[in-house]
Write a structure and sequence with these properties.
Number of domains: 2
Helix content: 55-70%
Strand order of the largest sheet: 1-4
Shape: globular
Number of helices: 19
Largest sheet: 2 strands, antiparallel
Number of strands: 6
Strand content: under 5%
Order of helices and strands: HHHEHHHHEEHHHHHEHHHEEHHHH
Length: about 450
């Protein structure tokens, strides 16, 4: 196994990879509860979606680890599940069965594009400045989510965001966890983020925030959503826009995520990510598989950065994450206790335990920002726009789109148009058309 995952050559070991796997799992365990909560508004069975979420996350993540040897986890994508539920099903009045059929078709198209190596060319076409900015922008987005999950940042009708109640028990617990995790990192203690999550959870029990809910319990049945997709109805011409939108979001969310992970993990070699075609294939296969089980589009998860920050460098980290998602089917109460959310008022759900990890990860992802040439404004301005728009639009794909458009336009009109490849110009045009017609 050590030889298969090349642990020695990657400068890692079993202990590090296992800790990294646990850390990634804890930072993305929320999807076990959030995804069913979102998709169930369409009439889908909550328990069945929960089981489908765990199964597709586990199997695709394990496959990613074995097939690519990267510490990358996959799960139903946030944002794409909201589009599925609130726009397609509730907004357009389309049944969830037909919506799953659209996801299936999108996944098949995705596989065909991957086999044609188009996606690999697409990834390679991302300029280095944009790729570095994507990593930083994702870090800012993750930190923003962490601050929101802690209740430190809240929505405001006039200023959009505002400072929450810092003295609330949830915010105080997250801040205490942030302090503890920071001290672990400063002292270079192995497994700092994971230990920070565990200690924060333990401190939350006597404070009455984290409530003990048991250890084990039987998983619900998946039969209400299994193979219930309606592919024939989804093939109608009227649903072409829906399929294209799913495909567009999936492709560029994945490209942005892999670019960020590649930069932070040091996996980029000579401007390219080795075996990126394999990553795309597993990602696309996960979408097809997920639609059969009963979940929306599956994509690579940026929370994988948490495990990478703990030293995870091989596919063994992904295998550990996948196994933990399988085990979580039977340890549902325990997983919910640590990774679950707590509704503090109507519509406001906090995740004070894992919020700490997200804030720390956001900090670590900013380490590469010094690689951007801030003295060259044709590089600096597009990079800044990528970094700032990702958290403000709450979308990796939007940040990447604005980065491509601004990079192409500024280079072209500043007389540096030859520095930009034809594919980047083409993608910029597609992004402009997307903003014009698909919003």
């Amino acid at each position: 196994m050590s030889k298969f995952f090349a642990l020695k050559s990657l400068g890692t070991n079993w202990r590090t990879e296992i800790i990294a796997g646990f850390t990634t799992f804890m930072t993305m365990a929320y999807i076990i509860f959030v995804n069913p909560a979102i998709l169930s508004v369409t009439g889908m069975d909550f328990g069945a979606v929960m089981v489908a979420t765990c199964l597709v996350t586990a199997l695709t993540t394990i496959l990613m680890g074995i097939y690519t040897n990267y510490p990358i986890a996959l799960a139903p994508g946030m944002g794409m599940n909201a589009y599925f539920a609130y726009t397609v099903c509730l907004g357009m009045g389309i049944s969830w069965e037909v919506a799953l059929g659209c996801v299936f078709i999108e996944g098949v198209i995705f596989i065909l594009l991957t086999l044609s190596k188009f996606r690999q060319k697409l990834f390679d076409a991302v300029p280095q400045t944009i790729r570095i900015a994507v990593a930083c922008g994702i870090g800012l987005l993750i930190a923003f989510v962490g601050l929101k999950d802690a209740g430190i940042i809240i929505s405001h009708p006039s200023t959009f965001v505002s400072l929450g109640k810092i003295t609330s028990p949830y915010a105080m617990l997250s801040l205490l966890g942030l302090l503890i995790t920071s001290l672990f990192l400063i002292r270079k203690i192995k497994g700092s983020i994971f230990l920070g999550i565990l200690i924060t959870a333990l401190l939350g029990i006597p404070l009455g925030i984290v409530k003990y809910q048991g250890i084990m319990g039987p998983p619900p049945s998946i039969s209400p959503t299994l193979f219930k997709l309606d592919i024939l109805s989804a093939l109608k011409l009227g649903f072409l826009t829906i399929v294209f939108t799913f495909l567009f979001m999936d492709i560029f969310d994945t490209v942005g995520t892999l670019a960020g992970i590649g930069e932070i993990g040091g996996f980029i070699k000579n401007g390219k990510l080795p075996r990126v075609g394999r990553c795309f294939f597993v990602d696309a296969l996960g979408t097809v598989f997920g639609s059969l089980l009963g979940v929306s589009t599956v994509t690579s998860y940026i929370e994988s950065i948490s495990g990478i920050s703990e030293g995870g460098r091989s596919g063994l980290t992904s295998v550990v994450v996948g196994l933990l998602f399988l085990f979580s089917l039977f340890f549902f109460p325990l997983t919910k206790m640590i990774g679950g959310g707590y509704e503090v008022c109507s519509g406001m759900v906090l995740h004070p335990v894992t919020a700490t990890a997200l804030i720390i990860i956001g900090t670590l992802m900013f380490l590469s920002i010094t690689k951007i040439d801030w003295r060259d404004y044709s590089e600096a301005i597009p990079a800044f726009l990528v970094i700032i728009t990702m958290p403000l639009t709450f979308s990796i794909a939007n940040g990447l789109a604005i980065g491509f458009i601004s990079f192409s336009a500024i280079k072209l009109f500043s007389g540096k148009g030859k520095e930009v490849s034809g594919l980047v110009y083409l993608l910029s045009l597609l992004f402009i058309l997307r903003f014009a017609f698909l919003e």
